[in-house]
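Forwarding the complex inputs:
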Amino acid sequence: MTRILWRVHRNLPDRRQRCATVLLLVLFLFLPALVPAQPDRSHPPALGSPPRLTLPALQHLTLSNGVPVLLLEKHTVPLVQINLIVRAGSLMDPPGKQGLADMTASMLMEGAGHRTSLELADAIDFLGVQISSESGRHTMGVNLHTPLSKLDSAIVLMADIVCRPTFPPEDLERLRKERLTEMMQGRDDPDYIASVAFGHALYGAHSYGVPKLGTDQGVRAVTTADVLTFHRKYIVPANATIIVVGDVTPVTILPRLERAFGSWKGSGAIPPPVPPIVPTAGRTLILIDKPGAEQSVIRIGRVAAPRLTDDYDAMTVMNTILGGSFTSRLNQNLRERHGYTYGASSGFDFRPLAGPFIASSSVQTAVTDKALGEFLKEFQRMLVMVPDSDLVRAKNYMAFRFPGGFETVSQIANRLEELVIYGLPDDYFDGAIDRILAVTKGDVLRAAEKYIRMENLAFVIVGDLATIADSVKSLDIAPASVLTVDDALGPLQHRAPGE
Amino acid sequence: MKRLLILMILACGTALAGDGHLSLPYIRWTLPNGLDVILHEDHSVSTIAVDVWYHVGSAREKPGKTGFAHLFEHLMFEGSQHVPQGKFDEWLEAAGGDNNGSTTNDRTNYEEVIPNNALALPLFLESDRMGFLVEAMSPGKVNAQRDVVKNERRENYDNEPYGLASLSIEENLFPENHPYHWPVIGSMEDLASASYQDVVDFFRKYYVPSNATLVIAGDVNVDTTKDLVETWFHDVPGGPAVPPQAAPPVFLTEQKRVVLEDRVQLPRLYIAWPTPPVFAPGDAEMDILAAILAGGKNSRLYKRLVYELQVAQDVSAFQDGRRLASIFEIVVTAREGHRLREIEKLVWEEIRALTTTPPAPREVERAVNQIEASFLDRLESVQMKAELLNMYVAATGNPDYLNEDLARYKAIDPGDIQAMTATYLRADGCVVLSVFPLGKPELAAPKEGRP
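Prediction (whole assembly, two chains):
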């Protein structure tokens, strides 16, 4: 049992230098004494100034085939993280084949070079290294996490996976069954149901409205030829970047990368532009029935802004106040004050195109209507009231914990991906603390007004409708659609056991 | 002598000597009130982790009061004599700190991760609630957190697919007089009955400094930190020592077969056995056995049930290591169109194979290599290091038990795995639980056990 299940967030900082000198002086005075100082518990202790982020310089290297390499040296533990990302993801799924990118990413691990799926897994596991492949909406990646002592063997396997996957048809069939079953199991999980319905409510038929795993129909339609084509088109040097973080230097890593990826060829297609998003207007309320549910899963939100918006810092500070920390208004209200839930939170899911603003919670069935009312009260309050204490705490929380988010090699590599994907400058993170601290009350209020629009919200509730539907509808928050799980996820397709 | 050596290593500030020898250098001392303090220096980051373990978990609860240790954990965040309600989190956030707490059967922990300038703050907060909690306690606070915990139970158990399975396994695996018989989360009825007086009694009995360990790991200066710890904790009143807990050994002499109906699409089979306590002989073998059975595509159950026959969606196996007795568990979700009868038969076949023939050396080596690599990962974060120091000292008395821990795995040979499988994974001493979809009891494993 943990106290807090949810952990939101990106970090970022304020400068509140209370007299560090006083503390030092106190310590100094009492150091020689045998009896320790009587602690002053009348107020929290004074703290010195917080640390800045001090990242080693980013180094830019290039392989002979043109693949850019971003290196950050970190020599504390003999580990190396290598993330290879390509600019192609589920947004490139052709119509009717939703799920292709995700299947392609998974299929990379199902046989490569001269190794079958089982041989490849055995080689990776025997080394004790981790290699994973994953597809996002805009990008896809293969990540290697390895002790330095295993780097030479591991990088060979990684190169096979990226450059020489074999895509055996029988493994595609196995994966397909696994994927379809996984999607079927999503019906058990009210959070999954709510997420799918919420995505659809906000983005309709746009790719952002389709689950990353794809659709039942799409997953059924994918062929080996589709996977091969996707790989040939998009997983190519011209479309790739390699990020290295860990116990290596340019001299030790470049020859290894060159041997592994230098001869990688292929001229693929630059991914086509993604169709623009047309946000839905007005309010919608979608009620999905989960008979007997002990809790109602609530999602409220709307289409917000792309990652590169100028409002980014104001939005994140605003959200920290509203629902992005333990002391945030939503959590304090719904969890601590009312006891409706184990936690309530909100966040912006930033993407290349406008991602969603999402507020969410799982609340006790009997108080679903009251909880909805409290969400709306807090939204309304966010539009008009930002006391200094809230603003300072939120900014300090984000700014002072920001350096702590660069601790492990995989954490750092993930942050560097952000630079690559969004084309941010090398010193972007160095400036993050100051950018946060510069956010003003006016900025926060403007961000609230712009992105929490009371007249344009989608509400999705998954719960026991026999108990909650009437009271929720009587709130009159939006015209209601009542759905079954089948309506929300598509009808369940049964398969014969041996299929 | 040892202390001297440790200090010398500390001066180098590294957790890894050149020869690959792992170490977690530390300084350890005890305050007059009995508080055990462990300090680990790491200047590669600008953060500090503070991790307080109280050596009390749900195993100390009394019948009718289940879930109390965890409810108490929640109350520890609701303010103490000098920390008004709500300020614990507000002050930490304003300093850029994160915090959390967790409760298991054996212990309760409280942790903060803060920037290197802010160490005095968590020390103030932890010392205040260690020394002066009840002065600020009220029935109202107990009631409010009771509601939060009930919601936690709803979210993670009652409304979670297969969420009640783990509770059923503990109840059936451990006899009624065993302190692992009831779950950490507790029952709704018992949570309802927890009173203000229970809180006061529990605090006086178990939240004494001599029943706690304070670990500080990260970007700290040793001298300054020692002084800060003295300053903030020396006025925390001591209390009577908490005697160690003993529990009757767990022997299951039957195959208990249990079924649960749940709102799920697919049936899932659980087989659970009582196994040796964490760090006791046999414990490491169970970790390796778990990897041989279900770790990776080439593991025996995954390869046969998921990869080849494709009758299962997923398999997992793990040793849930605990202080008084552990649980070894195998979990398999059947694919649509397959019943747990068929799954169970295959699982027992694979177990039986391991009791008659030792695994191949490569299977053992593969598992050990993965465990060895994971040790490096744990040294990457100050929070994980703090947790390791606490875990090791609680279980073995030695905070820097990394090498001894790893050596346990490296000493295992295939014959050990065969022997331990035969000793512990017995058909006549386990719990076989079927979770079946609403209205489809025919998918569950049969009522009668397999021979």
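The CA atoms of residues 313 and 369 of chain B lie 26 Å apart.
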